[in-house]
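Run log, item B.
One chain of 107 residues. Sequence copied directly from the ordering sheet:
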Amino acid sequence: MYAVIQTGGKQYRVKEGDVIDVEKLVFPKSKKEITFNEVLLGGDKKELAIGQPIIKGAKVKAEVLGSLRAKKIVTYKYKRRKSYHRTIGHRQNLVRLRIKEIVLKKQ
């Protein structure tokens, strides 16, 4: 069974046991589990539930493994003949999650 969840403006195809990195989430430090209610699609090859836009009553539970930072992205700005150049770097904050359970309720 798999599901497609939405978080941080992105969509992820997950199944139980998967480890994924998502954009930093706001949650208490003491909390070790997080629940995603925005499930867009879920099921298996025989039965597939499609949300319009989300599946009502569906949840994906995940365990928080820790936080990390993505690889650095370097951007370089340059204007010819104007003696202008600028280097900018960015590292995105991420949270590593392990998917524990996918709960789908039939519509």
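Observations after the first pass:
- The two ends are 17 Å apart (CA to CA).
- The chain has one domain: 2-103.
Flagged for discussion on Thursday.
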